[in-house]
Amino acid sequence: MDWSAKLFIGVFTLMVLFSAFKAFGDDDNRINIIQVGKGDNLDLTITQEGFDNNIFFSIGDGDDILLDLLQVGNNNEIGYANDYPSWGSGVSWGGDIDFDDQDIKLWQNCTKNSSCNKNDIQFHVSYGTDNKLWWSQGFIIDDRNDTNWSKDNTEGGGHNVTIDIHGNDNSIIGHQRNCSAGSCTGHSARIYLYGDDNDVFGQQQADGSKEFYLTINNDDNTVDYLQDGAGEHNATITITGSQPTTLDLTQHSNSTQNYTLTQNCVTSGGCTVTVTQD
Predict the structure, then answer these.
(1) Tally of structural domains, the chain
(2) N or C: which terminus of the chain has fewer CB atoms within 10 Å of its end residue's CB?
């Protein structure tokens, strides 16, 4: 059976399952997948439970794409149809996944029932080789190798994330969680990359606005960041240069910390920056 037949059967099966689920739930789930190009070895797993979950994305040229998208809880979205930056479907230009060995796993959850804020995830990997994107909102990812994500049982939802990527062999792994008040509009994280062989791992957690913007553009950078506590921290980071940067940023406090870094490393062998604010 070829990939297109498998995709059709998979999506049709999901539609039947969700229709059956709606028969006894109060849910309004929606899945919209637009497949173009050659597709190749797509392995698609989608789980949605509860209320107004949505998943939309284009798939693009393909190759060995593996997707695992899970949404449990209230009014979550994943994909191109979010409010910012209003990309829309990338079906005509290869956005929202393109070719080569992508491995993308996106999970969202909220445990506050009807008082949950809306989680958003937006992504658009395009023209890359061997890219890897894991991101969760409402689940805990302990490190780069953690594949057994635990659920945050005091999760109020609302985190929002925008991810772009491009390029080759980039890895972005991180989580946002624990807006436990339910009315919290905190956390944001927007990550763009474009260069090759970059490795980013990040965590934003606890109540209050955290934000975090990262733009890299060049190659071979490694970034670890943590923002937690009740403070409204906010870190804006732009890393470019002819040589790589290793950055370790920690802002951990119940008071606001703030940090802006613009790095342009030209030192042979690379640069290392460590920032800790407690």
Answers:
(1) 1
(2) N
